[in-house]
Amino acid sequence: MRGAPTLLEVYNSLSGRKEEFWPLEDRVVRMYVCGITPYDVGHLGHARVFVFFDTVRRYFEFNAYRVRHVQNITDVDDDMVRVSQRLGLTIAELTERNQQLYLQEMDALNVQRPDLFPKASEHIDGMIALVQALLRSGHAYGVDGYVFFDTATTPRFGALAGHDREGLRHVRNDSMPQEPEELKRDALDFLLWQPSEQAGAAFDSPWGRGRPGWHIECSAMVHAALGDRIDIHGGGSDLRYPHHDSEIVQSECATGAAPYVSLWMHIGTELLEGVKMSKSLGNLVKVSELLVRGHTPDGIRLYLLGTPYREQQDFSPAALSQWEQRAATLARAAAAAGGPPDRLRVQPLRNEFTAAMDDGFDTPRAIAALLRIADGVERQRLAGETAVPALLELAGVLGLRLGREG
RNA sequence: GGCCACGUAGCCAAGUGGUAAGGCAGAGGUCUGCAAAACCUCCAUCGUGGGUUCGAUUCCCACCGUGGCCUCCA
Hints:
Shape: globular
Largest sheet: 4 strands, parallel
CATH class of the domain at 9-131 and 215-271: Alpha Beta
Strand order of the largest sheet: 4-3-9-10
Distance between the termini: 38 Å
CATH architecture of the domain at 9-131 and 215-271: 3-Layer(aba) Sandwich
């Protein structure tokens, strides 16, 4: 059973092509977005992901869908342990501190809060249950307090990466992850549970005191919050493999429900002067800094939505400034009187906006339609009484305020 | 090696099967005591080679180049 198809066609990372979007349940969209690991402050790359999925949500809501939006917080993680120890904080304190900073930035950017913000540490039981199910069904095996997923038991592993098992072996791998390779049956197997005694990151389990592996948390939280199968799973493109591929096999093998996710959406990387923005490199542009420098939430949102979401985006001050000018244009038009009554000539531009969004969330094209409405209002070719409300409504779908509160 | 993108003027960048928005920089001009600001004007045949077509920058193929992911990372 599934709901009626929308007019939407969206690129699915799993199939590698555009597909009609069919929600599992009519008029409802179950959407899970991989969120932050709060060991440090975020940057524009994070903001891009969350602004984009906020826009996806707003567009579904604009089309009278109910969106069940869940975004996790990874508070059980090696970096969390390391940073909390260095700062002399508990993991809970570190989480709270960075989560608040994150929320302040997202609030400033007019990102609606997800319905649920589950923390990994609150779903340990669910993870253990999934691991037990995998052990029972023979998809996992335990060794010396470790539990590994047995990738030989499913042909699906590597589907997102675009490889079969043999192909995965040829994937370049310069630096080894911190997994005890010698305990694995196969190098492709991945960790579900590991021994741990670190304060704040150690939990009782059937396999002894320990903590979960790197991928199982999302499966558990999706399961708990949204069910065995969901409509949309999103995140940065750097999570595609191995994180999301691992999630697929874990979840499908544990629950028997497939496909785990109908539509996989991956957001292109944010670059700074041609180099990927990442915490490890330290080449970060932070939202809070941009705001302090006088940039506006609308300008930043327009910038982030001004590149097709699947493409990488290269930040530069000049590019952002250009979007600030456009934000000012839109705000000016929103406050303008416009021309005389015109029999709804704004309608073709409305249609262009929705056609763009229906075409795989083509936000750059949608923005172009908005700018054309603004231009029409300013040149008095569109009637203020119809075009200005249309402008405000459609801009709102992109999360733009246009100088208005709220 | 695989996957995903990109390659448009000095720079950033939009876009379209019928000879290409905009912004920055630059040049000229209006204005001004000078300058600034503002405004006006000027400045590209779209990586290379093929193919499809009456016609391609726009579709297809190949190639070259760039970047990202494939390893904790949004």
